[in-house]
Amino acid sequence: MLIRIRSRDGLERLEIPNPNITISQLKTLIQTHLNVPIHSQTLSTNQTLLISKTPQQFTDMSNPDTLISSLGIAHGSMVFLSYEGERTVAGPAVRLSARKKMTMDDLIAKQMRIVRQESANCEMVSFDRDAANGFQAYVNNTLAFAVKRGGFMYGTVDEEAGKVNVDFIYEPPQHGTESSLILLRDTEEEKLVEGIALGLGMRKVGFIFTQSVGQGKTDYTLSNREVLQAVEVQSESDLKEWVTVLVKLEVNEEGGADVHFEAFQMSDLCVKLFKEDWDKGD
Q1: What are the start-end ranges of the H helices in 44-159?
Q2: Ranges for the MPN domain (predicted)?
Q3: 8 Å CB contact between 21 and 37
Q4: Which of 73, 79, 1, 6 is nearest to 232 (CA)?
Q5: Boundaries of CATH 3.10.20.90 in the chain?
Q6: Which fold has domain 2-83?
Q7: Start-to-end Cα distance in the chain
Q8: Nearest-CA neighbor of 169 among 183, 150, 186, 144?
Q9: What SS3 state is found at 226?
């Protein structure tokens, strides 16, 4: 089975050979495959571990003899990892076939052709003025675009026109730095938000996040980490018009600063690649 490991480095997947292994065995697998020494690891099913200054207070996975199945950890579960020091994130593993020969059919089956999506699923995004201003004002006036901020957009969809209307933005508990955004999602709170939106005739229509001013020194539009996070949340929805909105601060011709909203969509192929585990983390 596969479980997801969330750390300050992002989301990684770990293959577990036996669902009834102990926490001690899980830590050994993390050391082997994710290059984090056992003595440096603190594990928990509580996402606040990632922003805590005292990770030792998280004891739900401190007993090395506890079976992970007894904690409700199963295929697809998320485990949070905090560790001291630095590490080298492992690259994709190369698996050699036990067979000496590979047929052309075998080779074709292992290939994925990357092609450009010619037509967008969403042609236009329209924001409620107060919703957009409320989001950017906090990031601009309070955070000064020094760290990243994100949220989920709710509104309506005009399927015939291919248009998304954003009426409000829900900002979940989170921890942002100059280069990363960790969403500390609360399932029960999100259910309440979904219920309120449903009562208003709305639904979740996309993901919005900011780039810090420190990122302005780079040449990319979206970093690999931002693409992975955007496609991860998009893959949770069955809405083909789902949109991702980037908010950033740019210097104008007069030397002042303007806030820009830019809308994107992760392509259908991008979502397919993520769901089929073709990505290899950050």
Answers
A1: 104-109, 129-137
A2: 124-266
A3: no
A4: 6
A5: 2-83
A6: Ubiquitin-like (UB roll) (3.10.20)
A7: 21
A8: 150
A9: helix
Query: Which token pair is 111?
Result: 């290939």
Q: For the segment 122-132, what is each residue's pLDDT rounded down to a tens digit? A: 889 999 999 99
How many angstroms separate the Cα of 256 from the Cα of each of 209, 216, 248, 250, 259?
22, 15, 14, 8, 10
* Per-residue CA distances from 23 to 28, 32, 211, 257, 277 (Å): 9, 14, 37, 50, 25
The pTM assigned to this predicted structure is: 0.69
Q: How many Cβ atoms are within 10 Å of 233's Cβ, its own excluded?
A: 19
Using an 8 Å Cβ cutoff, are 4 and 78 in contact?
yes
Q: Do residues 139 and 145 make contact, with C-beta atoms less than 8 angstroms apart?
A: yes
Write the single-letter amino acid at 70.
Answer: S
The verdict on domain 124-275 having CATH code 3.40.630.10 is: no
Half-sphere CA count of 31, side-chain side, radius 13 A: 12
Question: Residue 222: what residue type?
Answer: L
Under 8 Å between Cβ of 149 and 208 = no
- Residue 278, amino acid: W
Which amino acid is it at 174? Answer: Q
pLDDT tens digits along 77-100: 999 999 988 776 654 444 444 444
Enter the tokens of residue 122: 């969403």
What is the 3-state composition of the chain as percent helix, strand, coil, each rounded to the nearest 5? Answer: 30, 25, 45
